[in-house]
Design brief:
By secondary structure, the chain is of the alpha+beta class. The chain has one domain. The protein is built from three helices and twelve strands, in the order ααβββββββββαβββ.
């Protein structure tokens, strides 16, 4: 799978790491991160001294797993304004694990990132938020966020089905597919 931009990579990484968080009820380890990045066809360039560096033709991914997890997703062009950061940590006040995607540089970020964080309650083991993470595919030059039925059902129950999970814009639905009128991403629901 070839990725074009940080949003596509970050959403795919977050989707894989959320599954790890729910299964293990802990912040993903360095090995969990390496496995997720390798499954996304990213090549490991360096690993040691508390960091791991992966890349493909379009993206550089820097992972810093040390108790908390920080993953920077940077375009290989070096445009920091498009870079995103995936963070995962234990919020002791909520007694929950948090996984979120944020602009790496709020001052220079050129788009809107409307992604809801994943909040896993450690007492119940249930998600207390409605994150819409999935894998990205491209079809006829249009990027699609592909989500499963479980994610779709959780999203529908949140009442935010007409809000693009990527940019916060308006979604237009036709069956199990939607298109955002603002950012141009599509959404597909697959079993």
């Amino acid at each position: 799978m070839s990725f074009q931009d940080p949003v596509m990579v970050a959403l795919s990484i977050a989707d894989k790491l959320l599954k790890v968080i729910v299964e293990k009820r802990s912040v993903p380890s360095g090995e969990d991160v390496k496995k997720a990045l390798t499954e996304l066809d990213l090549e490991e360039v360096y690993s040691g001294k508390g960091l791991t560096l992966f890349r493909n033709r379009d993206i550089i991914v820097l992972a810093l797993p040390r108790g908390n997890l920080v993953i920077d997703v940077i375009p290989s062009t070096g445009e920091i304004g498009e870079a995103l950061e995936i963070i995962s940590y234990h919020d002791r006040k909520l007694n929950a694990l948090i996984l979120e995607i944020l602009p790496a540089n709020d001052l220079e970020y050129e788009g809107n990132i409307g992604l809801e964080p994943a909040i896993l309650d450690l007492n119940s083991g249930e998600l207390k938020s409605s994150p819409v993470f999935g894998r990205l595919e491209e079809e006829n030059g249009i990027p699609y966020l592909v989500i499963d039925e479980k994610t779709f059902d959780r999203w529908m129950k949140s009442g935010k089905l007409n809000v693009c999970p990527i940019c916060g814009g308006q979604l237009i639905w036709k069956g199990k597919q939607a298109h955002c009128v603002d950012c141009g991403y599509g959404i597909k629901v697959r079993e």
